[in-house]
Amino acid sequence: xxxxxxxxxxxxxxxxxxxxxxxxxxxxxxxxxxxxxxxxxxxxxxxxxxxxxxxxxxxxxxxxxxxxxxxxxxxxxxxxxxxxxxxxxxxxxxxxxxxxxxxxxxxxxxxxxxxxxxxxxxxxxxxxxxxxxxxxxxxxxxxxxxxxxxxxxxxxxxxxxxxxxxxxxxxxxxxxxxxxxxxxxxxxxxxxxxxxxxxxxxxxxxxxxxxxxxxxxxxxxxxxxxxxxxxxxxxxxxxxxxxxxxxxxxxxxxxxxxxxxxxxxxxxxxxxxxxxxxxxxxxxxxxxxxxxxxxxxxxxxxxxxxxxxxxxxxxxxxxxxxxxx
Length: 325
What we know:
- This protein is α+β, with helices and mostly antiparallel strands.
- It has a domain at 136-307: D-amino Acid Aminotransferase, Chain A, domain 1, CATH 3.30.470.20.
- The chain contains six helices and 15 strands.
- The chain has helices at 25-58, 84-91, 136-147, 241-244, 247-260, 296-318, and strands spanning 5-8, 11-14, 20-22, 70-75, 94-95, 104-108, 126-127, 160-166, 175-179, 188-192, 203-211, 218-223, 235-239, 264-271, 278-284.
- The strands form four sheets. The protein has a five-stranded antiparallel sheet with strand order 13-12-11-14-15. The protein has a four-stranded parallel sheet with strand order 5-4-6-7. The protein has a three-stranded antiparallel sheet with strand order 1-2-3, with no helix packed on it.
- Helix 2 links the parallel strand 4 and strand 5 (94-95).
- Helix 3 (136-147) packs across helix 5 (247-260).
- The longest helix is centred in the first third of the chain and has 34 residues, at 25-58.
- The radius of gyration is 21 Å and the shape is globular.
- 33% of the residues are buried.
- This is ATP-grasp domain-containing protein.
- It comes from Aquisalinus flavus.
């Protein structure tokens, strides 16, 4: 776990992404929130396992015995702050280290482009194996192909205000800049500046988890103008795809996920208050969650929704008849 981070000038550095995390009161609060939720999920899994064992003793032979689904992550296993960890625990899916012992494989690497893709074992599906490039430029390219309108702008010919940010995920370095922009910046992309507010003051990100071609839940992450491009939410609430996206928008979102190869992960979607259209601005194949600012009860509801969808999706691929843990 500690190997995932470096330390420099009073900040934690995420080695894979280069993201910098300030060690302050907010960070310590987030750490405590993650730890508390992790213990709660662990306790729920233990209670369900115990109940299943007791039911088996009370009604022997009433249900066919089947071992739990086993999943292996490669090249690295997720830490507890990644969404897939509580999802597996709540879905009754066991995480194993040996790919040969797994029913399902999961390509898990917190970086924008895939290195040497792990070999897929015969007869075993590897989740996210086609999601090999989630750089901002690639996201904008696929978005335009699917939705038919543009997110990216050419900084040398565009006239107006644009958003300049890094190709990399998790950096949160967005800057509003006027265009034409004549000074090249290596590793930067330029996008349309989207007004994702309802009142001009509170900015809302529609964080949309994707699980096997479904949209089980949505987080509405709200920020002020001062934290608009950061990862600091002053409020998060749980919603649904039907409440936030039209049927045609949901179809396009899932088509986008399929085309970019995202089986499991999260999409950052913004709705522009002026044209009413949605824009997918980010793809996260190693999604973290649930958001720490989400109320405790809603965290469990959200993760259980994702867990139920994930189990329903992988169960047929695992080839087992498995009762809930």
